[in-house]
Amino acid sequence: MSTSLQHRHEFKAKLTKLVADMSAWEGKARIDEDEAAKIASSITAFSHTTAIEEPFLIGGVDGSGDYPSLSYSDSFVSIANASGTVYRTDSIHGLCEVASVADPNLELVWLPEDRDAAKPFWFEAFANLTGISVDAVIAQSDYQDLKNSSSSHSHGIAELEENLILPTASDTSNVAIQLRSVAELGAAYRLICHSASCRYVLMDTTLSLPMVTRKQLSLFYEHLKRLCCVEARDRGTVFMTISKSHGLPCIDIIEQLAANASGTGDKIAEHWFLRLPVPGHDDWQISLVENRTIPPVGAVSYLVRFHRNTPVVRMDIDRRYWETNLRDDAAAELRLFGELDYASHDQRAFGYPYPIKACHDRVRLSMNERSALKKQIIEAAVAQGMKRSLFRDVSSATGHV
Amino acid sequence: MSETSPHPPSLETLKTALGERFGVLAESNTHQLTVIARNTDVAVGDLFLLPCKRGPERFYVFRTTQYANVMNRTLDMNDVARNKLTMLGSYLSQDLAEENLIELKGIVLGFAQRDDDVWTFHRPRRLPEHLTEVYRVDAGDPAVADVVRTLMESQLGSDGLYIGDVLAGETPLAGVRVQLPAYALSHHLGIFGRTGCGKSNTMMVFLSSIMDHNRLVATGERQDRRCSILAIDPHDEFQTWHHRIGGRDGIRGIVHGYTTGQRENLVDPFYYLTGRQPATPGLERPLELSWADITPQDLASVIEMTDQQLSFSNRFFSQPDASGQASGDRWIRDLFDLTKEAAENDSRSSDVHPGTIDGVKRRLGFLQAGNNRIFTEYSPHDGKPYDSILPDVIVAMERGRVVIVDTTLVSEVEQFMFSTVVARVLFLLRKALRSSDDPARLETEIRSALGNDDDSGNTGMQALADELWSRVEAGALPYLVGDRVVSTDDLPYVNVVIEEAPSVLNPERIRFGSVFRDISRQGRKFGIGLTVISQQVTAIDQGILTQINTELTMALGNEEERRAAVRNASADLTGFERELQVMGKGQALATASYRDIPLPTQAPNFDTL
Q: Model's pTM, two decimal places?
């Protein structure tokens, strides 16, 4: 980029317009007094929890990978990996890790550009990352029910399987989203099914179901996401997603209301949660949500602040679990957030559940590891008689590292 | 397991003995290596071995200079620390994966390479390959010590003077002995360390090693020359060591352990001189020097003098008076007797300011009765003959002896004067020997060296010359073997210890010349070396420091001294600066111009040696 760009008249004009637009958006009144009062009354404080009454296990899930790692002619090779960690509460160490799922969820996925040719490889990758077949996931998940009611269309398993959205191999960003999501949710599913019996399994995402209102079309990870909810519910595990990107505008309004409610004045309030109104359950709506589907279909969403140094996060929980265990039990709800707060006191990630952070650190592929994996893939392929010259490191070949 | 072994062990064999891998080499350059290792109790100075097959089989020897606690996947430890300090109820979870690691930084001392079926040690001109495995040298494991000895044998020395064992961190590697070659005594040694760092124990170990060496040479078990050392003992420790408090006896104990024959061969005429009267004179003698042993240059070496005072003293010593006779070794008596009137009529002093003469007299005042314990008056005309232990000290030194000189009761000036005189006379005699191949000329050369030439009216050190020549003729001073003059190359390596060296080796003191400066420059040619013992490096004349080629650098008191020690060491001590600060008692860095690498050593406790 030309270094003189920022001095050009055209840039300055566009900058002025950008700031004006942002300012106008910022100044738009989002909520009225009644809504503000409703929000304020819904904000609930929980205690800074440094000790827990009843020991429990808590798992965290995260993933990484290289999407794509290499191209070979008109096909692509991706590396998907994800894993889970489990910790038990401990009065000495805070949290102690326990043995859980043995190895990271690692899959080398080769996808040819031709959609039909790629489909079996998609399904194979999904099955490998999940541990069960694609049709079993669809059959056992409650996504089908949610979709049927949300789209006003009754779907069969075969129909859903047939209409799974599978991007072409060269649509690398969508391929990455699908593979990574399935890898992570697959790791979560394994963790939920593991004999360790976690009280909580957390992962860094949301319970959003982007295609749930669409007829026929769906994403495999939507089915899997809901399967995790089903399996967790059956096993008495709380499956929750945590997203640092809550996706709401003007969060400072809520923060100020929380500060007012907590009596912290101008200081940031911490240790509070706000359950966003649930359609069909609550008699009010929060206008900040605007057109977003928050909470997602089949879920309940909370905004939570554990600590002043970490941002407000959005936590989604399976609605049926919530209805059964939390809706009418304020004490249980407080205990849940207290226990999550306890799990967020590791010195390395204060204010954020450590099992997710630990898992992130374990599973993250460094540049060197990615390079080493690329080399191993190429060497193995060449040993099978493939042409070394047709392998391309997609990112380095284009300079977009 | 040595360089000369016909079947040295392979890299794999040696590696097996090292046990579990300790860490992995992370970063490396020719300046510094970084190793990542498990969370372990470690110490600065720990030794590590890095087996490597890039090129021939090699073991790199790595020594840590820094440690740091690091976390496997945590980028900013400061954030973690801040959280621990400020966040109520924060904890550090216990992970199954090894999260708490340590990062070692340090230097490659060198590498041992196996080629032509031998392990040879090389300076650190190469680097181990990427991600080389790192093995810790476990000081408690004899098998590991054996590996280190195999790899570093050429640097450790053999058949020499034992000074201690290689130090791995805080623990010596038993059996990995560091030895100085016997010839090191004919070069110059520096022993630097602050009070309480273990210099005395180190000296005791060194002295006993010299006695061991002489014993082995005498029996033919070691093919080398004997060693002599004149060891000044300002605290009277070396003779009896801790015997008085129930501990081990010192050099006396070793001497008492000898047979009669060994005592005659290795100790006679004495091993101990003292300013007091020994209870059982024999091998322990009173320390006595004569006024006749002192020259004006000796005086200038230990006492501050002006140009005029030194010039006058030299003139009074060597120029003839009105009778045509120089005072020579009577110069001190003559000077004390020189009245103001006589001075005005004496050609040697008539043009000298009376204040200068008085100044010299004042400087010689320490020699007068009541002011000293060891100097005897020399005034043959008044019935006070030459009475000195000096000729016997020379005999002892030329026969390969350890002579301890207890200076607890003598003044600093007397102590330095004694060292100066002995060193000067030995130096002059060795030069005289080198000048004479003909036995018939040997006496002339010796007398000439001592300034005694009757034909030209130079008295010089006549009394000493007479005594020494009588000992040559009696065979006690081994300068003649049959009809051949002994070469200085056949005489023992001789070393004179200078305790509290800054007092006599500071630049101001040696401004007008010093026998020690001469010996430091030329002594090696004649087999005479100095051992400079000091708490300070900075206070010693730079010219002398540069001539020192073996250093035992112990814990030093301040940064400036440590920098000076690093700067003047005979091997590169870069990276050891921190070590000099934390070294424990008896620990030293041994550096020498004839060794490739500095060796951290621990002198054993002499009580348990």
A: 0.68
Cα–Cα distance measured from residue B119 to residue B11, given in angstroms and rounded to the nearest whole number: 10
| Interval B356-403: pLDDT, tens | 999 999 999 988 877 788 999 999 989 999 999 999 999 999 999 999
Report yes or no: B292 and B464 within 8 Å, Cβ to Cβ.
yes
Check pLDDT > 70 for residue B512.
no
* Conformational region of residue A121, where left means phi above 0, alpha means psi within -120 to 50, and beta covers everything else: alpha
Interface test with B, best of A350, A356, A360 (most B CBs within 10 A): A350
pLDDT tens, residue by residue, B115-133: 777 899 998 888 898 888 9
Query: What would the pLDDT profile of B563-609 be if each residue is shown by its tens digit?
Result: 999 999 998 887 777 778 888 999 999 999 999 889 999 999 999 88
Please list every residue in chain B whose beta carbon sits closer than 8 Å to the beta carbon of residue A50. 88-89
What are the helix (H) ranges across A3-156?
9-27, 33-42, 115-130, 134-140, 143-151
Helix (H, G, I), strand (E, B) or coil at A79: strand
Cβ of A97 within 8 Å of Cβ of B93? The answer is yes
**What does the block give as tokens for B394?**
């020379």
Helix (H, G, I), strand (E, B) or coil at B594: coil
The residues, any chain, with a CB within 8 Å of residue B139's CB and separated by 6 or more, are B145, B168, B169, B171, B172, B173, B174
How many other C-beta atoms are found inside a 10 Å radius of the C-beta of residue A16?
Answer: 10
Report helix angle A143-151 to A220-235, nearest 10.
120
Q: In what order do the strands lie in the sheet with B550-553?
A: B171-180, B161-168, B599-602, B587-592, B550-553, B189-192, B528-534, B493-498, B227-233, B402-406, B272-274, B284-286
Q: What is the pLDDT of residues B244-290, one digit of tens each?
A: 898 899 999 999 999 999 999 999 999 999 988 887 778 999 999 99
Yes or no, beta carbons of B89 and A362 under 8 Å apart? no
Task: Report the C-alpha gap between B294 and B312 in whole angstroms.
Answer: 15
Look at B92 and A90 and tell me if their CB atoms are within 8 Å. Answer: no
Mean per-residue pLDDT, A104-112: 89
Nearest CA in chain B to A95: B93
Q: Report the gap between the CA of A271 and the closest CA in chain B (Å).
A: 13
Which of A49, A347, A361 lies nearest to residue B91, judging by beta carbons?
A: A347
Query: Do the Cβ atoms of B509 and B517 come closer than 8 Å?
Result: no
> Cis link prior to A68 (omega < 30° from 0)?
yes
Looking at the partner chain, which of A48, A97, A361 has a beta carbon nearest the beta carbon of B96? A97
A94 CA to chain B: closest CA distance, Å?
A: 6
pLDDT digit string (tens) for A24-60?
776 555 678 888 889 999 999 999 999 999 999 999 9
Enter the tokens of residue B360: 């010299």
For residue B85, give how far its alpha carbon lies from the nearest alpha carbon of chain A (Å). Answer: 9
Partnered with residue B133 across adjacent β-strands are B24
Q: Residue A391: which residues within 8 A CB-CB, separation 6 or more?
A: A70, A71, A72, A378, A381
